[in-house]
Structures are given as C-alpha cells and as structure tokens.
C-alpha cells in the first residue's frame, strides 16, 4: 500500500507540474513582447518628418528704366525715318535761304527763291514781306549783305502730315553800319504736299507755333 500511495502522489505532482507549465505557456503567448513594443516606438520616433516644399518667390520687376538694345523709336512715330529726314532737311534749307540775301538782288527774285520751298499761301506772304518798299529801301541804304546758315534743333509737334521744327539760324551780316553775327530761333512748320514737303509757316520760336495746317 505504501508503494501504491507513493506512486499516486508522484502522479498527482507530475500532473500539477504539467498544468502549471501549460498556464505559463499560455501567459507568455498572450502577453505582448516588451522588446517589440520598444522597436515600434523607436521606429516611430526616428521616422523623417515630412517637409512641405515652398515655391521660390517671384522675381520683382526692376523699377529702373533701361533702354533695350534693339529699341527702334521710329516704330512709335507717325512718320518714317526717311519722311522725317526729308521734312527736317527742307526746314533747314528754307531757313538758311531766308537768311541769305543782299541789297543788290532783285527783291522779287529773292521772294521767288523762297517760294520754291513754300505752300502757295505762305509764298504769297513771303513775297509781300520781301518786296515791301520800306524793307528794300533800308537794306539798300545800309548796303546789307547777309549769309545765313541753319540747323534743326528740336521737333515741337508732329502728325502724319505735319511737323513743326525749331530751327536755329545764324546770319553773318556785313553792312555799312557794321559787321555782326545774328542768331535767331524759328518755329518752322512743314506739311506734306503729295510725296513732297512744303513750308507752311515760320514764326519766331518764342512766339509759339500751334502747328495748324488748315489754309
């Protein structure tokens, strides 16, 4: 009996040990691994932060005026370069002729020379002025000889059919009363006459010139 009891107690002890080991195995299986939790947290902490890209700021236009290297001013004018050049040359030659005369010349011939540059209406005004008896008598009495030169200085006004130039004039005058150089500025208006140009008016530059081309 003693042997049987001993064997029975051993069997019960073994069975109890198996139950305990089984319970420990279930616990270990269901319990989360502390090492795995640490790795997950480390990965989350060391993951690179997402950086949103910001577009570069737009360039600010320069406020300094700079002339382009290919700027063509004639694109913005009502006349071509050749038209404007021809009008300026006419104004210059007319002003030089206006200042070139001498007391011995027939006043009508002087007026005719100026009329070649002018419109019919302005030519008639010039003829009256150049043949005025008082002017002719004064030039003869002082034996005046005048040689004029001229240069276009600025453009005062411009349309497709009209240009007002400011023309500088220098007259070298030799007379009994003395020798001198006389400088003047004129506003000379030239108008289109078909494919050509004609002088429409001439006034002292200081007096102004509105550029009206209506006869």
Blueprint of the fold:
Layout: H1 2-30, H2 34-46, H3 81-98, E1 101-102, H4 107-115, H5 120-130, H6 133-141, E2 145-159, E3 162-175, E4 178-193, E5 196-204
Antiparallel strand pairs: 1-2, 2-3, 3-4, 4-5
Provide an overview of this structure.
This protein is of the alpha+beta class. The protein has a domain of 135 residues: VirB8 protein (Nuclear Transport Factor 2, Chain: A, Roll). It contains 6 helices and 5 strands; from the N terminus they run αααβαααββββ. A 5-stranded antiparallel β-sheet has the order 1-2-3-4-5. Strand 2 and strand 3 form a beta hairpin. Helix 4 packs antiparallel against helix 5. The chain is elongated, with a radius of gyration of 54 Å. The termini are far apart. Keywords: Membrane, Transmembrane, Transmembrane helix.
Give the biggest beta sheet: 5 strands, antiparallel
Q: Which structural class matches the secondary elements?
A: alpha+beta
- Total number of helical segments? 6
What is the straight-line distance between the termini? 159 Å
Q: In total, how many beta strands?
A: 5
Low-confidence stretches: none
Percent of residues in helices comes to 40-55%
Radius of gyration: 54 Å
Mean pLDDT: 82
CATH H-level superfamily of the domain at 73-207 = VirB8 protein
Morphology: elongated
The CATH class of the domain at 73-207 is identified as Alpha Beta
CATH architecture identity of the domain at 73-207: Roll
CATH topology of the domain at 73-207: Nuclear Transport Factor 2, Chain: A
Strand order of the largest sheet: 1-2-3-4-5
> In sequence order, what are the helices and strands, one letter per element?
HHHEHHHEEEE
Relative strand content: 25-35%
Region (Disordered): 33-61
Biased composition (Low complexity): 43-53
Keywords: Membrane, Transmembrane, Transmembrane helix
Transmembrane segments: 12-30
């Amino acid at each position: 009996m003693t042997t049987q009891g001993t064997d029975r107690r051993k069997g019960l002890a073994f069975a109890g040990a198996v139950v305990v080991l089984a319970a420990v195995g279930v616990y270990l299986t269901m319990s989360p691994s502390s090492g795995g939790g640490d790795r997950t947290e480390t990965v989350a902490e060391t993951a690179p932060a997402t950086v949103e890209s910001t577009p570069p700021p737009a360039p600010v236009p320069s406020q300094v005026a700079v002339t382009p290297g290919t700027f063509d001013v004639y694109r913005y004018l009502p006349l071509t370069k050749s038209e404007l050049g021809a009008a300026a040359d006419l104004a210059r030659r007319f002003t030089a002729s206006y200042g070139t005369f001498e007391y011995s010349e027939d006043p009508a011939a002087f007026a005719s020379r100026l009329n070649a540059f002018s419109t019919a209406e302005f030519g008639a005004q010039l003829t009256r002025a150049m043949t005025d008896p008082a002017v002719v008598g004064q030039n003869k009495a002082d034996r005046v000889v005048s040689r004029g030169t001229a240069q276009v200085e600025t453009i005062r006004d411009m349309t497709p059919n009209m240009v007002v130039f400011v023309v500088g004039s220098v007259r070298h005058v030799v007379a009994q009363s003395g020798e001198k150089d006389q400088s003047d500025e004129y506003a000379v208006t030239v108008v289109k006459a078909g494919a050509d140009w004609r002088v429409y008016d001439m006034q002292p530059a200081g007096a102004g010139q509105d550029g009206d081309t209506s006869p």
